[in-house]
C-alpha cells in the first residue's frame, strides 16, 4: 500500500539514496501537495457541515465520506514517506497502526465509488423510487458496510502477525512497509485474492450503471422528453466516467511493484526518482481527482464552496 517506502527498500549493495538537497526537495514537494489537497478536502468538509442541504442528501454524504477517507489515506501515506527519510525505521506497533489505516482507506475508495455509481443509476433510471431506496439511514448503513468489508480483508493480517510473530517484534523497529509487516504467505495470498474480487465487483458495477444511464439518456433523447432529464443523465454518465478514471488510478496501487519494475527497465539508473514519481502518481494524484467530481463540478457545492475556499 505504501509505495513511498520503496525508497530505501533495496539491497545494501546498491547506492540509491538521495542526496540531502534532493531528499529535502522531494519531501517539500510531497508535503506541499499533501497539504494543498487536504486543505481543499477540509474546505469541502467544512462546507458540507455548514449547510443542511448537503447532509440530508445521500449523494453528498457518500461524497464527503470519500473525501474524509482520502484525507486519512493521504495523511498516512505522507507520514510513511517522511518517516522513511527522517527515521528510516520506526516502532513496529506504530507501523502496524499506520499501515492498517492506510490499507483500510485504500480499500474503502473503490467500494465508495461503486456505491456512488449505484446512487447515480437509481437517480436517473429509477427517479420515482430514489427517495425510497436512497434514504439517509441506508446511506450510513452502506458506509458502515464499506468499513466492515475493508476490516474483513485487513484485520486477519494483523491477527496472523500477532499469532505467528514473537512479542518482541512489537517492541522493535522496522522499515514500515506492508510486505515487511504482513509477510506471511497466507496474508500475501489473501491480499491478491481480495484485490481481484473487489476490483471485479467494482468494475462490473461501474460498467452496469454507466451503460444503463447511457441508454436512459438515449431513450430520453429519442422520445424528446424534458431536456432536464437528458441533461441529468449526461451529467451522471460523465460522473461515472470520472469514477472509472479514479478507480483506474486507484488500481495502480495494487500493481505498484509491477509499475516500478517496468519504469526501472527503462530508467535503471534512476531508482529513487522513479519511486518518487510513482508515489506522486499512485498515491497523491487519485486523491486530487475526488474534489473535482462533486466539489467543483456540482453547481450547488461550488456555489457554497467559494465562500470558504480562500477564507
TrEMBL record:
Gene3D superfamilies to which the protein is assigned, alphabetical: Rhodopsin 7-helix transmembrane proteins
Source organism of the structure: Seriola lalandi dorsalis
Chief site of localization: membrane
CDD domains for the chain: 7tm_classA_rhodopsin-like (cd00637)
Name this polypeptide is given: Olfactory receptor 51B2-like
GO molecular function, one term: odorant binding
Taxonomic lineage: Eukaryota, Metazoa, Chordata, Craniata, Vertebrata
A Gene Ontology cellular-component term: membrane
PROSITE patterns reported in the protein's UniProt record: G_PROTEIN_RECEP_F1_2
Keywords (A to Z) from UniProt: Membrane, Transmembrane, Transmembrane helix
Domain G-protein coupled receptors family 1 profile, first and last residues per copy: 40-294
InterPro entries for this protein: GPCR1_Superfamily_Member, GPCR_Rhodpsn, GPCR_Rhodpsn_7TM
Subcellular location(s) per record: Membrane
Amino acid at each position: 500500500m505504501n509505495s513511498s517506502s520503496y525508497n530505501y527498500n533495496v539491497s545494501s549493495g546498491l547506492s540509491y539514496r538521495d542526496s540531502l538537497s534532493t531528499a529535502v526537495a522531494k519531501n517539500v514537494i510531497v508535503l506541499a501537495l499533501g497539504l494543498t489537497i487536504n486543505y481543499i478536502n477540509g474546505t469541502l468538509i467544512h462546507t458540507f457541515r455548514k449547510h443542511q442541504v448537503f447532509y440530508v442528501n445521500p449523494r453528498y454524504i457518500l461524497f464527503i465520506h470519500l473525501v474524509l477517507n482520502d484525507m486519512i489515506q493521504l495523511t498516512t501515506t505522507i507520514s510513511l514517506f517522511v518517516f522513511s527519510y527522517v527515521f528510516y525505521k520506526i516502532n513496529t506497533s506504530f507501523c502496524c497502526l499506520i499501515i492498517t489505516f492506510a490499507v483500510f482507506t485504500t480499500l474503502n475508495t473503490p467500494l465508495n465509488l461503486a456505491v456512488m455509481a449505484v446512487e447515480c443509476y437509481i437517480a436517473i433510471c429509477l427517479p420515482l423510487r430514489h427517495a425510497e431506496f436512497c434514504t439517509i439511514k441506508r446511506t450510513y448503513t452502506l458506509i458502515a458496510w464499506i468499513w466492515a468489508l475493508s476490516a474483513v480483508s485487513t484485520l486477519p493480517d494483523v491477527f496472523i502477525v500477532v499469532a505467528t510473530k514473537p512479542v518482541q517484534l512489537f517492541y522493535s523497529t522496522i522499515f514500515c512497509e506492508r510486505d515487511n509487516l504482513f509477510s506471511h504467505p497466507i496474508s500475501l495470498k489473501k491480499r491478491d485474492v481480495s484485490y481481484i474480487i473487489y476490483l471485479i465487483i467494482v468494475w462490473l458495477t461501474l460498467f452496469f450503471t454507466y451503460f444503463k444511464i447511457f441508454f436512459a439518456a438515449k431513450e430520453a433523447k429519442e422520445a424528446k422528453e424534458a431536456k432536464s432529464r437528458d441533461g441529468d443523465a449526461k451529467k451522471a454518465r460523465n460522473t461515472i466516467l470520472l469514477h472509472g478514471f479514479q478507480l483506474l488510478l486507484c488500481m495502480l496501487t495494487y500493481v505498484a511493484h509491477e509499475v516500478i519494475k517496468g519504469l526501472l527497465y527503462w530508467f535503471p539508473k534512476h531508482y529513487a526518482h522513479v519511486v518518487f514519481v510513482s508515489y506522486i502518481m499512485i498515491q497523491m494524484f487519485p486523491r486530487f481527482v475526488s474534489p473535482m467530481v462533486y466539489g467543483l463540478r456540482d453547481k450547488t457545492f461550488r456555489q457554497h464552496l467559494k465562500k470558504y475556499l480562500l477564507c
